[in-house]
Amino acid sequence: MLTVENLNLHYGAAQALRGVSLTAPMGKITCVLGRNGVGKTSLLRAVTGQHPVSSGDIRFDDKSLNGLAPFNRARRGVGYVPQGREIFPLLTVKENLETGFAPLSHRDRFIPDDIFSLFPVLQSMLSRRGGDLSGGQQQQLAIGRAMVTRPKILVLDEPTEGIQPSIIKDIGRAIRYLRDSTGMAILLVEQYLDFCRELADHVYIMDRGEIVLDGEAAILDTPEARRHLTV
What we know:
It is a single chain. The chain is α/β, with parallel strands linked by helices. The chain has a single domain, classed as P-loop containing nucleotide triphosphate hydrolases (Rossmann fold, 3-Layer(aba) Sandwich), CATH 3.40.50.300. It is built from nine helices and ten strands. Strand 7, helix 7 and strand 8 form a beta-alpha-beta unit. The chain is globular, with a radius of gyration of 17 Å. The relative contact order is 0.20.
């Protein structure tokens, strides 16, 4: 599992994370919720190596990730789907997927069939440029690119943001399939409560850089959770 212990992170003098601790077990969907600006994306940046931590420990498969560059974390099995998708607009869909080959050995450098089973639209658009896809299609491409790396844990930052409802359902089915069929750990940052309510095995709620509440998805319907999540 992924284990985060007493994590602190700063941007200059500003502290974004304050003693954050959580676990994301294999074969489970762990969802992190909170209002804008409470530190959710900073947490994922710390886990994926996009920003150094001030103190604390991040462990995966019982090995510390502290100090490892993002590409080395990818080799350890950390797959990342960033907020805003960040696909390459001038590369084709096929070329975008192939960028996921970088951390793989040569024998594993192929696109798994599961990606096209989950997102058939990608197979029909392999020669289209990424920038020509709709927002929802780009999000499917970003998830597919992360899947190419054969992750042991998939880290997703607000995958439903700006996406039409039909594609949100496709993404939800894909996340559930990956949990159930591969046993990978999934760490999901989200603001769409219904999406987390349907998918999450465990929920953490953040406020002001701290974990203030955690439990099963049912806690999302409690007054305390609503107090931390409503604007």
